[in-house]
Structures are given as structure tokens and as C-alpha cells.
Amino acid sequence: MCDIPPHGVNSRRWDAILLSDDDSIPIEIKSPTEEMNLSVKAIRQALENKIILQSRKSEKNKWPTCTLAIGFELPNKRAEVLELINDIKKIYDINIAIFGIEYLLKISVNCISENRKIEFSELINKKGILNG
Amino acid sequence: MDNILKQGKIKSKSFKYKNEAIPVIVQYMDQEPSKLTLSDESTINSSCLNCYDLNCLTLENNSIVMDELSSSQTNILCPTEAIFLNESGEVEINVQDCIGCGLCVVSCPVGAIYIGKEDVAIINRKNQSMEFSDEPFQVKCIVKSSPAIQENEKKLRKIIKLINELPDRTSVLNKLVCKSLQLTGLDTNLTRQGDVNLRMDAVSIDINNNHILVEIEHTANLDSPRDILDDVAVFCSRYDIDKSKASGLIVLTELPNKRTEYWELITDIEKVVKVKIATLPLSSLLALTWSGSLLCLTDFYLGNNNTSARNATYKLLLRSINIPNKNSLIEAAK
Questions:
Q1: Residue B322 domain-assigned?
Q2: CB contact (8 A) between residue A87 and residue B243
Q3: Residues of A in contact with B270 (CB under 8 A)
Q4: What CATH number is attached to the domain comprising B82?
Q5: What is the ipTM of this complex?
Q6: Which residue of A lies nearest to B274 if distances are taken between CA atoms?
Q7: For residue B235, what are the CA distances in angstroms to A67, B58, B230, B251?
Q8: A27 vs chain B: nearest CA distance in angstroms?
Q9: Hey, are the CB atoms on B229 and A40 less than 8 Å from each other?
Q10: In this complex, how many residue pairs, one in chain A and one in chain B, have their CB atoms less than 8 Å apart?
């Protein structure tokens, strides 16, 4: 299930959240008007979403489960986004996964054409840039 | 740049006190030249000696926190480079550029510089009981019996306003904070702009060899704690430093309101990823600098249960800071 929190609730600052019975994945969404390519800003906010979720416990959340950032385009190679994701994993042991709208559309079309759903468990261990 | 070049010139004349007297006690006065008690028990208005050390111009940065930063450090004390050696070899202040931060006042060993009625630094040159000397006078040991500058809200707000009006305000604020941290006993280096491995504004190191990653901001928002999270991850990962030996310091010109998310977020960060973040108001830092006190960050780890730096400052100053209650210069307002 994907939930969109109401505006102005500080303890639920993510743009959307995937929910299972005992876990959750917060999602930071960057529109093309905010930034065309995902940047380190989105990574920082994805990290913050995970920290707030772990601290304030507004939803059930397991530590190893990733936090997501979705943008219009993948980051520029020189933007150091992947390096930052790796640094955060190494130092805070927090998994951050990112993808662009193209990947989201691709998996959506696949799901429709194959008449299947993406399981929550398929996403929890993701890390880095998803574009496969 | 002209100012920097002028600072390289050799001075022509120096002074010493008559009858071989040496300065013993300096007492700072408000908007007036300091009173200097000499070893012959006479008291004079302190004036510039054209002394050997030129502490009012430079603060030696011998403690390089990281080798990578050695080339980017400056010894120039004044954040706006308003104080310089003129062509006669005398220290001079360009009052147009002076923001009244008082770093030169604090650094003059005999209290010959004071903040005047116009809130800019003035060098007293009305020499009393002094005579020319062939050798520049070196001040060895002197007691400072009062704060070099007495802090108050008007003075502090004027400094902040003047900085904010400058085209290079970020650079000036960074230099002011860096040199103030050095003067209060914390070895601090500014980082190089554009270095992706050192994203923080400055790095300090404390007596226990803990690295303190410093963010310096005009106004607090959620970006400051986010920056610290980013700084710690990148710094510890790429320099192979244990996370427990690194912490964050956010220096702010004004503290955010109680209802902002800032306080909750720094509390969350410590709770979840164990990164401690100190919040130091510029006012506290300047008051400590002006009083010649040493900075200890222990009590500046504020959070949603304590949004005031007043008590922490009191402990270090050993007196109350002269800022009214519920003032954002020292504590979060409603």
C-alpha cells in the first residue's frame, strides 16, 4: 500500500510511503520543476526521512529496510550521488535507493502487461541507483 | 589585496614605556581607551606601541587540523581586512570596512585598540609616558582585568547587520567564526571551497583529538542539520575516521524559533545515528572571545528539551550574558 501523508505534519515529512503490516519505505519525490536530475539534496532528505521514521515511530519501520528517492532523471555522473549513498551506508548503515521516472514507468508497464504486482519484499533491500 | 600587500612592509618606529616600565594590568573601558597600569604603579591610557608581534593583524595558524587544509589557511585576523600596516609602518584601521567585531581589540596585548562611539575599532595613538625605542617592544605577561568588549544586544545585532549587508557576507562570517574559535582555544581551519571531500565550512579538533565539523549559517533551517549528516558521512568514510570521534557544530547568527523542526531534527539525529550536534550562537562565541574565555562545547548540545544557550554561556563566562530574556541571539523564541 502507498500512502501520501497530509500536508504540514512534521513527523511525516516524506512525500509518500510504502506500507506493509510490519514495515515501511519512505519516499522522497523530486519533481522536474524542483530538479531535473536527482541530486545530493534528495539523498539527504531520504536519509532524514529514515531518521525521523526511526526516531518518531509514526509508522513501523525496520532498520535494514531502504529509504527511496524518486526523481525525473537519474543524477549526473559528476553529482557524487552514488558516492554519498555509499558513504551513508558505510557510516550510518542506512540503505538509500534512487530511480528516475523512466524506471518507474518501465516497471509499471511490466506489471500491467504481466498482470502482477511488485511485492514489498522486493524493494526492502534495494540500494544505489536502480535502472535495470 | 592592497591591504595584504601593505602588511608585508617593515615598520619604522616603535615605542617603549618611560623609565623601563612594563605593563602589568590592562582595564578595558567602554568606548574609551583602556587604562594601563605600569610596573612603576602609574596608570596611563594605553596606546599603540608599534609592537613586534603585530597580534592585531595576524593570528598564527600553527595548528593545521588536516594536512589537506594547510594551503588554504590565512593568518590574517580581521575578517574584513580592515586593519593593515600603512606606508609609514603604522597599524591603521579602515573604518569603512570595520564591522566592530573586536578581534583586533582582543588581540592587542596592551589594549591600545578599543571600540569607539561609532561602533568601529579605534587605535589610540595619544602616547603618554612613552618614548621612541630602537627595538620593537615585546609584551610578555599582562593581566586583563575586564572583558575587552562588553556585549549587548545592540552591538551584536549591528555586527550581524553589517555582515549581512556585505557582498562577501558568507566569507566574512566564516572568517569571523574561524578566528573566534581559534581565540577561544579550539584549533580550527576553514575548508577549501569546492572540495567534495570536505564539504563543511570549517573543521576543528578538540583536546581529545575529536573532529568537530562546523557549519556556519546566517539563519537556521533544516539544511544545517542535513549538512552535518552529510559532512559526517563523507568525512568519516573518505578519511577513515571513527564516527564516534566526529561531531557537528552549527554556528548561527540567530537561533531558530522553538516551533521550527530544527530542534526536533538534531534530537532525532543524535538518537538514531548517534551524531551529536552542538548549536552555538554567534553572540555566545563573541562574548566568550571578548572576555578571553575558553570554549567548551559540552553544554551547547541543545535539542527539543533545551533550546537556550544562556546557561551554557553562563558556565563559561562565569557571569550572565548581557542579552535580554527570550532573545533569539541566545535562545529560541516562541
A1: no
A2: no
A3: none
A4: 3.30.70.20
A5: 0.90
A6: A92
A7: 22, 29, 8, 19
A8: 17
A9: no
A10: 52
Collect all residues of chain B within an 8 Å Cβ-Cβ radius of residue A48.
222, 226, 229, 265
- What are the DSSP calls for A9-71, one per residue? -TT--SSEEEE-SS-EEEEEE--TTT-SB--HHHHHHHHHHHHHHHHH-SS---TTS-EEEEE
**pLDDT value at position A132?**
60
Cα–Cα nearest to A20, from A130, A128, A127, A124: A124
Nearest Cα residue in chain B from A93: B273
Structural domain for B212, as ranges: 153-317
CB contact under 8 A, A10 and B229: no
* CA dist., res. A71 & res. A73, Å (int): 6
pLDDT digits (tens, 9 = 90+) for B229-254: 999 999 999 999 999 999 999 999 99
Minimum CA–CA partner of B229 in chain A: A44
B233 chain-A contacts, CB cut-off 8 A? 84, 87-88, 90-92
- Interface touch A44/B273, C-beta < 8 Å: no
Per-residue pLDDT tens over the stretch B288-320: 999 999 999 999 999 989 999 999 999 999 999
Residue B324 lies in a domain: no
Q: Which of B231, B81, B253 is nearest to B173 (CA)?
A: B253
CB burial of residue B70 (10 Å; 0-12, 13-18, 19+): exposed
> Nine-digit cell at B319?
557571569
**Closest CA of chain B from A94, distance in Å:** 9
Question: Domain limits of chain A?
Answer: 2-129
A90, B233: Cβ pair inside 8 Å?
Answer: yes
Over 60: is that where the pLDDT of B277 sits?
Answer: yes
Pull the grid cell for residue A118: 511488485
Q: What is the mean pLDDT of chain B?
A: 89
Handedness of CA B54, B59, B61, B63 (dihedral sign): positive
Give the helix/strand (H/E) hosting B173: helix B169-183
- Structural domain ending residue among the three candidates B144, B164, B190: B144
- In A, residues 16-45, which contact B (CB 8 Å cutoff)? 40, 44-45
Q: Hey, are the CB atoms on B243 and A51 less than 8 Å from each other?
A: no
Report the gap between the CA of B295 and the closest CA in chain A (Å).
28
**Residue B160 half-sphere exposure, CB side, CA atoms within 13 Å?**
21
pLDDT digits (tens, 9 = 90+) for B82-117: 999 988 888 999 999 999 999 999 999 999 999 999
Structural domain count, chain B: 2
Cell numbers placing B241: 575516521
Model pLDDT, residue B1 = 45
Contacts of B148 (CB under 8 A, 6+ apart): B28, B102, B105, B106, B111, B290, B291, B292
